[in-house]
Amino acid sequence: MADYTQNVLKAAIHALSEVVAPSVDPDDPLAVEQLNLVIAWLEFERDRYPRSHDLHRAGVRWQRGIAEAALAAVGPTHGRDLSDRIARADRVLAEPEAGEPQLRAAEQDLAAGVSDLVRAADAFGPDSARALERAVIAASENYLTGHRVWLQPLGVEAGATDLPPLDDVLLGACEDKQ
Fold first, then answer.
1. Are 34 and 21 in contact (CB under 8 A)?
2. How many CA atoms lie within 13 A of 112 on its CB side?
3. Per-residue pLDDT in tens (0 to 9) along the chain, 178 residues
4. CB of 118 closer than 8 Å to CB of 139
5. What is the pTM for the complete model shown?
6. How far apart are CA 92 and CA 99, in angstroms?
7. How many CB atoms are located within 10 Å of the residue 42 CB?
8. What are the Cα distances from residue 145, in Å, to 40, 111, 160, 166?
């Protein structure tokens, strides 16, 4: 079945910009602001939509990196469940035809495994818990940078000039440099 998302987004942007916007009272700053925010979001979605599969594949890689760091911090005894989750994610990443639902599920599964491990960390002793927390925070850099780059066109982060190009982030070039 054909994907009409780009056409629908383009039509919605046009309708809001050309039909709705002239009807909005210019003396109602909240209405004008909200309309402009919706249009900006739809334009962002239209521009980023062709790369969304790449984002989801990168998201699994980023979460996998966090999971690997967490596993290394606690060892295989405490991280057996996380090891299983990493193996499942690896199978999804190895499948070139994996769709966005499978990629999102793998990313969420890894994130849940890391979260479960962090919540249980007190049972491992204070040193292990601190090591786990530090490892997760340090390993989150790719994830955070990736999302900063993805959202950069929205302008929500002032002075974000130090960010790498989108292609480098989504295709993993930045991960190899750390």
1. no
2. 10
3. 678 899 999 999 999 999 999 999 999 999 999 999 999 999 999 999 999 999 999 999 999 999 999 999 988 888 889 999 999 999 999 998 999 999 999 999 999 999 999 999 888 888 889 999 999 999 999 999 999 999 998 888 777 778 899 999 998 755 544 4
4. no
5. 0.84
6. 9
7. 20
8. 22, 17, 11, 10
